């Protein structure tokens, strides 16, 4: 049975409906608001239990803002975030505290996401103490278990973050995300700051942990190689909008949106000429999210744009493989 068929029979763990996250642009001594950066602008999607949804796009397209909004590190201006049937978009910080054990995040930079003044034992035990999930006399044993789950030795707990390599630091960040036994983890470009060999190790670790603990991931990344490897489905984001979403196989082997085709063509493969791979070069700069183009936001760079593309915004309809493009 395909993932699409399975998904029709279960309720999504998290569902996003018309989500918008805007950042005010302020000027002058009195900080007058003169506009908004539309980082996330009307995004909708579903993530089902036990699956990984990959979110890809260029820098500045709103991927990280999307992830930070889902965990309420950023507060949305509009829309719904339905987690296990409850709309958490308007939850207060106090209400969100109760959900932190179910929703966690792995940050992009392992150098800045760990407190350099705390030993690893303190970093990993802090969420256990805050949420009171483990008896005080069992915390040390639980820290050892967390370190073992990410393939680090017990003696690592007595060291500071600066004593580890980048890959090891990211493992500590993953262990911290696992501490409260969450159901949903946002992976915000967790391998982009690592070298290639370490990236592979961390990706394999995440896949193993997902299977072991039945985790659900939103995996945010620039590199399609990492996204292809870990994702069941892929959503392609451009300038605050989802332009295409479908199974990994459909997106990789049958891309429909011109932007998706351009992203895939930029991914390096062995002997591209022998495999018929044609590089798609996008002209022009990415428009400002503070003043996005009318109609389809990609029309200013699209080699196939028609008159309708600049006038009417294409709709992303529901379906196993959905595309927001007038030409499809």
Write a structural description:
This is ABC transporter ATP-binding protein. GO terms for molecular function: ATP binding. Keywords: ATP-binding, Nucleotide-binding, Transport. It holds the Pfam family oligo_HPY. With about 325 residues, the protein is α/β, with parallel strands linked by helices. It has one domain (about 5-100, about 180-325): P-loop containing nucleotide triphosphate hydrolases (Rossmann fold). It is about 30% helix and about 20% strand. The protein contains 11 helices and 11 strands. The strands form 2 sheets. A 7-stranded mixed β-sheet has the order 6-7-8-3-9-10-11, sandwiched between helices. A 4-stranded antiparallel β-sheet has the order 2-1-4-5. Strand 9 (about 235-240) and strand 10 form a beta hairpin. Helix 4 (about 120-130) packs across helix 5 and helix 6 (about 165-180) packs parallel to helix 7. It is globular, with a radius of gyration of 21 Å. The protein starts with a helix and ends in a 5-residue tail after the last strand.
Strand order of the largest sheet: 6-7-8-3-9-10-11
Helix tally? 11
In percent, how much strand structure appears in the residues? 15-25%
What form results from the Cα inertia axes? globular
Order of helix and strand elements from N to C terminus: HEEEHEEHEHHHEHEHEEHHHE
GO molecular function: ATP binding
Protein name: ABC transporter ATP-binding protein
Keywords: ATP-binding, Nucleotide-binding, Transport
InterPro entries: AAA+_ATPase, ABC_transp_ATP-bind, ABC_transporter-like_ATP-bd, ABC_transporter-like_CS, Oligopep_ABC_C, P-loop_NTPase
